[in-house]
From TrEMBL, chains A, B:
Pathway annotation: Amino-acid biosynthesis; L-leucine biosynthesis; L-leucine from 3-methyl-2-oxobutanoate: step 3/4
Record key words, sorted: Amino-acid biosynthesis, Branched-chain amino acid biosynthesis, Cytoplasm, Leucine biosynthesis, Magnesium, Manganese, Metal-binding, NAD, Oxidoreductase
Domain of life: Bacteria
GO annotation, biological process: L-leucine biosynthetic process
UniProt-annotated binding residues for NAD(+): 73-86, 278-290
Functional summary from the UniProt entry: Catalyzes the oxidation of 3-carboxy-2-hydroxy-4-methylpentanoate (3-isopropylmalate) to 3-carboxy-4-methyl-2-oxopentanoate. The product decarboxylates to 4-methyl-2 oxopentanoate.
Cofactor, how bound (note): Binds 1 Mg(2+) or Mn(2+) ion per subunit.
GO molecular function: 3-isopropylmalate dehydrogenase activity; magnesium ion binding; NAD binding
Record's protein name: 3-isopropylmalate dehydrogenase
Site (Important for catalysis): Y138, K188
Cofactor requirement: Mg(2+); Mn(2+)
Subunit details: Homodimer.
Family, similarity comment: Belongs to the isocitrate and isopropylmalate dehydrogenases family. LeuB type 1 subfamily.
């Protein structure tokens, strides 16, 4: 199994190092993994002028899965658009056709206090957000800033065709089948025709998944319901831009975004795996970052791309053990627990494995 | 002062009745108000075939302000698009050029428990969200569902010109000047050119308001920060669709959306005033609804359209008194307080005035 590893910017390299140590444990036990590192994001721009350089494209396309740290940082914010680090991220998503973004929002019992919500509202929270990742207003044309009658005008295009909606719908229905069999599709059908089509196609798919209970919710209401009573949700499916907003809102309900992994899959379960959090330039290089989201992303990689449920669960169990034993990086520290560095957290997970 | 009153659907008529009783108090003291009722929404469709009938257009255009209850209900959900109740709402906003939607998210001390967030996170919350209301992907063309190469395709257009951004920017900067002088502009400039222009224009306006501290935040981060630490915000300004999502999220932070009014203003402070909550068909006609958001909307009307700060404050003080005295409708009831009906709540506010 070939893994392209893209450490990226900020804390990316540190957290990736710990995830690779975890994979090394499996390798030493005989798992066949081959790792090739490549550049993505700001570091890639500095070295090559492009945030998703050709060399990286080759390695990523040839790999069975991609493990990514994080990209971006203030020093690249003022570059021209095509050179900004996030273009690298959007570029690799589109290039590898990673249309299905799975973002679990799970609250670990040991970390319940970290949430800004009342414990009874979030205890046991376990939502899976399925976000479409290669369409919508992110990639729609026409787009840009033009001058019309002497005025600057900004324009973007929200667009989905029924095939794009159907394939992400199937991923979401199947995810619901493996969980609590409830799927909530989020749209803004009362205003946007694009999302009327979204709702229509979801309804058309429903008879193929009779064991899944499909419901629909408007995006403004969904943003409210996530705050009011998030445990009403099992799987949510939505388009790229609404998914961007709602998945971040949902992950913050846990109060411990340093714990949350994500997967972005193509139609053959090739995938890119990365933590939900960003590159945290303020603590980069200080050995302070929480590597658990990246380690859990590696677990998702074993599950989805390598179909190795046992190894994935073994990593997840090790992480739970380490939390239960009281080890915490700074972002999830509370009095009475033991503060550890990024690499010490890696030590603990490796030991627990 | 001429007020067009649009009770609308569901609980609309009940809550409007209580707001009118409050205005009657001022009338009996000599305030010159003239009230004309008209149809909007589902009831208007039933009576005339249109959710914003011509008769209503005439009355609304001639009025100095519009007071609206709520529109919509399940019985109209399957009508063709142009006849749906929300088309009435979008129609009147556009017709009257009500581009500036002001949505306060305020947590009343007495109701702090109602929030799903921890008290220390939300106690004293007081955010003003300024949402652009007549542009963006809500009204952009081209739009619709077409068939291309045998596939259905849904399409909408996000569009803003610099004048539209500038005028809502000014409203937001001025709101910040009257408050804590902090303005956070929300966009998605790393992906959407439309919102790159938004950010550029906000930056261009900033020097005209040197007493206001302008910051920028990406919409996904804003959705997170509202959950993590909402009290960091004073005034937020954003486009129509992001504002739809974030203002609903922010209002739910209070846990008492039945308390929140809103104003939608044109360039001359003509405005439409309505509660943030919907038409609640499930409790319609039962005298159970909370009329306070509508009563507080009438207060906003006196403040913004009639420039009568004293009367507005008097209503707000009366509402606070009633809460302090322990009166609660069902939606905000907790043990130890006294449950009252919609009309009894109106009685209490009138008495407190
Ligand atoms: C960095 C940005 C382009 C990206 C997105 O909007 O998709 C990020 O917010 C995410 O959710 O992965
Ligand atoms: C009913 C709907 C069209 C409307 C909107 O999206 O603007 C509502 O959600 C609102 O926020 O007033």
């Amino acid at each position: 199994m070939k893994i392209a590893v893209l450490p990226g910017d900020g804390i990316g390299p540190e957290i990736i190092t710990q995830a690779l140590r975890v994979l090394d444990v499996f390798k030493s036990e005989g798992m066949k993994i081959e790792i090739e590192e490549a550049l993505l994001g700001g570091g890639a721009v500095d070295a090559t002028g492009s945030p998703y350089p050709e060399a990286t494209q080759k390695i990523a396309r040839a790999a069975d899965a991609v493990l990514l740290g994080a990209v971006g940082g203030p020093q690249w914010d003022n570059l021209p658009r095509p050179q900004r680090p996030e273009r690298g991220l959007l570029g690799i998503r589109k290039d590898l056709n990673l249309f299905a973004n799975l973002r679990p929002a799970v609250l670990y019992a040991e970390l319940a206090n970290a949430s800004s919500l009342k414990p009874e509202i979030v205890a046991g929270l376990d939502i899976m957000i399925v976000r479409e990742l290669t369409g919508d207003i992110y990639f729609g044309e026409p787009r840009g800033i033009t001058t019309e009658n002497g005025k600057r005008v900004g324009r973007n295009t929200m667009i989905y065709d029924e095939d794009e909606i159907r394939r992400i719908g199937r991923v979401a229905f199947q995810a619901a089948q493996r969980r609590n069999k409830k799927l909530c599709s989020v749209d803004k059908m009362n205003v946007l025709e694009t999302t009327q089509l979204w709702r229509d196609v979801m309804n058309e798919l429903a008879p193929e998944y009779p064991d899944v209970e499909l419901s629909h919710m408007l995006v403004d209401n969904a943003a409210m319901q996530l705050v009011r009573n998030p445990k009403q949700f099992d799987v949510m499916v939505t388009g790229n831009i609404f998914g961007d907003i709602l998945s971040d809102e949902a992950s913050m309900l846990t109060g411990s975004i340093g714990m949350l992994p994500s997967a972005s899959l193509d139609e053959n379960n090739k995938g890119m795996y990365e933590p939900c959090h960003g590159s945290a330039p303020d603590i980069a290089g200080k050995n302070l970052a929480n590597p658990l989201a990246t380690i859990l992303s590696a677990a998702m990689m074993l599950r989805y791309s390598f179909n190795d449920e046992a190894s994935a669960t073994r990593i997840e169990t090790a992480v739970k053990k380490v939390l239960a034993a009281g080890y915490r990086t700074g972002d999830i520290f509370e009095p009475g627990t033991q503060k550890v560095s990024c690499s010490e957290m890696g030590d603990q997970v490796v030991a627990a494995l």
